[in-house]
Design a protein that fits this description.
Blueprint: E1 12-13, E2 17-19, E3 25-27, E4 35-36, E5 47-50, E6 53-56, E7 61-62, E8 64-69, E9 83-88, H1 102-105, E10 115-116, H2 119-128, E11 133-136, H3 145-157, E12 161-166, H4 172-179, E13 184-188, H5 194-201, H6 205-218, E14 222-229, H7 237-251, E15 257-261, H8 276-288, E16 294-297, H9 302-305, E17 307-308, E18 315-320, E19 323-327, E20 358-360
Parallel strand pairs: 9-11, 11-12, 12-13, 13-14, 14-15, 15-16
Antiparallel strand pairs: 1-6, 2-3, 3-4, 5-6, 7-10, 8-9, 8-20, 17-18, 18-19
Length: 365
């Protein structure tokens, strides 16, 4: 835990913490329960102890803003083809050795957070640029809980939806508060063993499973799941079978699964990248176990990126990387061939943002 809080005046109060008998404070935003002395930061680096209270040190500060296709989050059943204004802060409450965004999530340099914007400025920027939603992404919004919620509130007032891209490592009380303000989420289910979470992430699988069940059964948030397949770590047929059976039994048939390819990064530079055959094997196992919508990511595979009707097999939404092609859905989101409903928030016509990635500047606080 870091003790270098250089500017204690630039802080934002939080609620999810308690004082301990030994004079420290315990952060209760996630299952790490960091216990902090004065001027000490938690593992996430953006929540720390200032004057005997846990505060957020990154409120209103971002590592950058960019307009992405919604499919990049990845969300394939939530306003397909539309643009989403994406941003994150710095730090993370997990310690994944394979992190693909390590330059942001592992950053200990608050100076990286050069872009400053109020929640209202972000909501207005989304409206002005034609974005249908704002995504809290790049690093985990669990750790900038208050900033994400305030932004989501400002977005909702303008008819802009909110998307959480998270590892789901969150305590129960803040989880309820957080998802009250979200419209969609993609949760990283990083593996299906406690050993993997302990050894490679510094976390616990059970907490993530609880988040998934909560979102699916206790909220109206649209949910999709991503698993990054790492050769020799979480890609065995037995584990994939267990993971997809759990999704089927606990979450149902309609929660889309995304299996993404790993590339060597951060502290796993000597691990090989994921062969495309592994992704397709995972997809086949999930389909066999009853999951209706299964995708592969980080590789070019049109069939593995496209949406097919679960009833008759017709191609419903064609995707070439993030570019939409075919669209065989009626105005109410049903298959034009058999009439079966496609799950998700799907409008009568697709968006036309395409595969563009457009950095933007958002008004300063």
């Amino acid at each position: 835990m870091d003790t270098n809080i250089v500017n204690p005046a630039d802080v934002f109060p939080t609620r999810h913490w308690q004082k301990l008998d030994d004079g420290r404070v315990e952060c209760q935003i996630c299952p790490r329960f960091c216990k902090l002395h004065e001027k000490q930061r938690g593992l996430c680096f953006v929540r720390g102890n200032v004057d005997g209270a846990v505060v957020l040190l990154s409120y209103g500060r971002s590592s950058g803003f960019c307009i992405d296709p919604i499919e990049k989050k990845p969300l394939n059943h939530f306003l397909p083809g539309t643009p989403v204004l994406s941003f994150g802060t710095a730090g993370c409450n997990l310690a994944c050795k394979f992190c693909q965004n390590w330059d942001i999530s592992k950053s200990r340099e608050m100076d990286r957070l050069m872009d400053q914007a109020s929640p209202e400025a972000i909501a207005n920027a989304a409206l002005d640029t034609g974005c249908r939603s704002v995504a809290y992404t790049y690093n985990d919004p669990v750790i900038f809980h208050e900033y994400a919620i305030d932004t989501a509130k400002a977005c909702r007032e303008l008819g802009i939806k909110s998307v959480a891209v998270s590892a789901g490592y969150q305590c129960a009380e803040p989880r309820v508060e957080f998802y009250r303000h979200m419209d969609a989420a993609n949760i990283d289910l990083k593996a299906f063993t406690e050993d993997f979470y302990h050894r490679l992430c510094g976390g616990q699988l059970q907490a993530v499973l609880e988040t998934l069940e909560y979102i699916k059964h206790e909220t109206t948030v649209w949910l999709e799941i991503t698993t990054l397949l790492i050769p020799g770590e979480n890609d065995s047929e037995a584990e994939l079978d267990s993971l997809t059976q759990w999704v089927f039994e606990k979450l149902g048939t309609e929660v889309p699964l995304h299996f993404s390819a790993f590339h060597p990064d951060w502290k796993m530079l000597n691990t090989i990248g994921t062969p495309p055959s592994t992704l397709m094997k995972a997809r086949q196992i999930a389909l066999k176990n009853g999951i209706r919508y299964v995708y592969v990511g980080n590789v070019h595979n049109k069939d593995g990126s496209s949406t097919f009707c679960h009833q008759c097999g017709q191609l419903l939404i064609g995707r070439d990387w993030y570019q939409l092609s075919e669209w065989n859905l009626t105005d109410d989101g049903s298959c034009t061939q058999c009439g079966a409903k496609c799950a998700g928030l799907i409008e009568s016509k697709p968006g036309f943002w395409g595969a563009r990635r457009q950095p933007v500047r958002v008004g300063r606080i």
